[in-house]
């Protein structure tokens, strides 16, 4: 019986996540250039979720790094490569995330915000 309950709970949680994700409403867009100094997002007032894509002229190495909990450096942080798409959930995370370039080039984040 415990196993069945666990499966039902997982299905219920998965359904809640699906419903929440697909009921989001776009509320803003930002095009952000990432350079040698760490940059933050300019988050719309009511945003709680963002879908982010990196476009970079550098395709052979890691052009950008990011962290939410602290400021990234050129050698420390989560790697983003050309055409990486990822999402960030939660207003505190949106307010705290920072990006920095690791190699010279043109690095542009395209951020779609949702409420």
Number of helical stretches of at least 4 residues: 2
Report the average pLDDT across residues: 88
What gyration radius follows from the Cα positions, in whole Å?
A: 17 Å
Q: What are the secondary-structure elements, in order, as H or E? A: HEEEEEEHEE
For the secondary structure, the number of strands is 8
The main sheet orders its strands as 1-8-3-6
Shape: elongated
User: Main β-sheet, in a few words?
Assistant: 4 strands, antiparallel
What is the CA-CA span between the terminal residues? 38 Å
Give the secondary structure arrangement, pairings included.
Blueprint: H1 2-22, E1 26-33, E2 39-40, E3 49-56, E4 64-67, E5 78-80, E6 85-89, H2 91-96, E7 98-101, E8 107-114
Antiparallel strand pairs: 1-8, 2-7, 3-6, 3-8, 4-5, 4-7
Word description of this protein:
With 115 residues, the chain is an alpha+beta fold. Helices cover 23% and strands 37% of the residues. The protein has 2 helices and 8 strands, in the order αββββββαββ. The chain has a 4-stranded antiparallel β-sheet. The longest helix has 21 residues, at 2-22. The relative contact order is 0.29.
Write a brief caption for the model.
This protein has 115 residues and is an alpha+beta fold. It is built from 2 helices and 8 strands. The radius of gyration is 17 Å and the shape is elongated.
């Amino acid at each position: 019986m415990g196993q069945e309950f666990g499966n039902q709970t997982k299905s219920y949680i998965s359904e809640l996540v699906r419903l929440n994700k697909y009921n989001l409403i776009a509320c803003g867009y930002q095009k952000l250039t990432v350079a040698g100094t760490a940059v933050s997002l300019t988050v719309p007032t009511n945003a709680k979720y963002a879908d982010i894509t990196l476009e970079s002229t550098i395709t052979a190495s890691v052009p950008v790094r990011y962290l939410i909990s602290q400021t990234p450096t050129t050698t420390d942080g989560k790697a983003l490569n050309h055409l990486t798409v990822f999402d960030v959930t939660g207003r505190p995370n949106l307010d705290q995330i920072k990006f920095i370039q690791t190699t010279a080039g043109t690095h542009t984040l395209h951020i779609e915000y949702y409420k």
